[in-house]
Amino acid sequence: MYLERLQHYAKQHQVAIHAFxxxxxxxxxxxxxQIENGLSLMMQDLGRYYVRYVNKSYGRTGTLWExxxxxxxxxxxxxxxxxxxxIELNPVRAGMVDHPAAYPWSSYQANALGRAIQxxxxxxxxxxxxxxxxxxxxxxxxxFEKPFSDKVLAEIRLASQGEWVLGSEHFKQQINTQLKLRxxxxxxxxxxxxxxx
Length: 197
What we know:
Layout: H1 2-12, E1 15-22, E2 27-33, H2 38-58, H3 77-88, H4 90-93, H5 108-111, H6 124-127, H7 133-143, H8 150-162, H9 169-179
Antiparallel strand pairs: 1-2
Helix pairs in contact: 1-2
């Protein structure tokens, strides 16, 4: 039901969903809004609908979510593929499965295995992994053979939990300038290698 409604509201608010995982107590999405406020409108409508659905289905009342959703701006292809892997490895890190292919509620099924998921739209970086869909899927699966470094995991977690920008120092400065912020969006530090090393 959640994925069905996510697809509906993503289409309605013009948001492309590239990666997702449904966990028992949270959801991760990698998405690109095509219009201003598209992401926030999608999440607002989805949250309202799903709370009503769960409350009615299980005879409960009240809120379902602990707080509002968190969003992080992600820079370029290198970072997007790392975030996609991070999202799809969530059930493995949680000890629910040994491999992301064993978890049915994830975009790994589309990205790596070619399962038709209407909600899913490939990242531009994903399309660059090969000339054919078979090559793209194979190259994507190979990304999962390389473990994340502790630095990469820490950088993604820090950015997502703090709702900061995830990207190069140049990208962060560019965003700071555009938003005319007086202080940095994310602390400056040496950039990890997002190829998985």
